[in-house]
Amino acid sequence: IDIALWKFETSKYYVTIIGAPGHRDFIKNMITGTSQADCAVLIVAAGTGEFEAGISKNGQTREHALLAFTLGVKQLIVGVNKMDSTEPPYSESRFEEIKKEVSNYIKKIGYNPAAVAFVPISGWHGDNMLEHSDKMSWFKGWNVERKEGKAEGRTLIEALDAILPPSRPTEKPLRLPLQDVYKIGGIGTVPVGRVETGVLKPGMVVTFAP
C-alpha cells in the first residue's frame, strides 16, 4: 500500500493531494505522505456513530490530527463529510456539534481553531466542494483569522485557495534527501525524495553522497 498523488489547479494554486491510507496498519505510509504536506485536510465523517468512533479515545480523527501537527503540518482544514447521511440529512446542529468537538480537540494538540476552516461537505454528491450547496443554505461560510490576515469562503476549494504557501529556501544549494529507490523495468532506477533546499531542473548534474 502506497500513497496516492492527485494533482489539479485552482484559480490560484497548483495543488497536489497526497492521499494516504488512514488505517492503523498503514500509519507508516501516512507519515510518509503527511510529512511532505504544506496543509492537512482532515476529513471527518458526520454520519451517526461514525464521527463518535473517529473522535473516541483511540479514534482515527484524533490520531490523524495529532500526527499532522507532530510532523510539522501547521495549517489545517477540516472537511465535515457525508453531510447527506446525517439525521436529518444536511443537519446544521450536527455540523455545529462536530465543529465544536473537533475544535476543542485540535486546540489541545496545538492548532488554533480560529485559523482552521470547517466546511460541511458531501464528497459523494459534491455539496460545498466546488460550489455552495443549496441543501445547506444555513451555512453562511467559513472564516479564518491568522496573523497573515483573514480569509473567508463557502467551499472546500476556496479553503484550499486560502492556504498560505510556505517560503521555500530556493536560493540555497540543492539538497534532496532520498526516501526510497525504485527499480522500474524499461525505465531504470528511480530515486524518490523531496527537494528540501535549492532547485531541481531537468538536465542538471547532481552529486549523490552517503
* Topology order in helix (H) and strand (E) letters: EEHEHHEHEEEHEE
Number of strands: 9
Number of helices: 5
Oligomer: single chain
Structural class, by secondary structure, is: alpha/beta
Number of domains: 2
CATH topology of the largest domain: Rossmann fold
> Using only CA atoms, what is the Rg?
19 Å
Overall form: globular
Give the percentage of residues in beta strands.
Answer: 25-35%
User: Per CATH, which architecture of the largest domain?
Assistant: 3-Layer(aba) Sandwich
Q: Give me the CATH superfamily of the largest domain.
A: P-loop containing nucleotide triphosphate hydrolases
Spell out the key features of this protein:
210 residues; alpha/beta; Rossmann fold; three-stranded parallel beta sheet; 25% strand
Descriptive overview:
The protein is an alpha/beta fold and 210 residues long. It folds into two domains: 4-162, P-loop containing nucleotide triphosphate hydrolases (Rossmann fold, 3-Layer(aba) Sandwich); 170-209, Translation factors (Elongation Factor Tu (Ef-tu), domain 3). Helix content is 23%, strand content 25%. The longest helix has 18 residues, at 92-109. The protein starts with a strand and ends in a 17-residue tail after the last strand. 26% of the residues are buried.
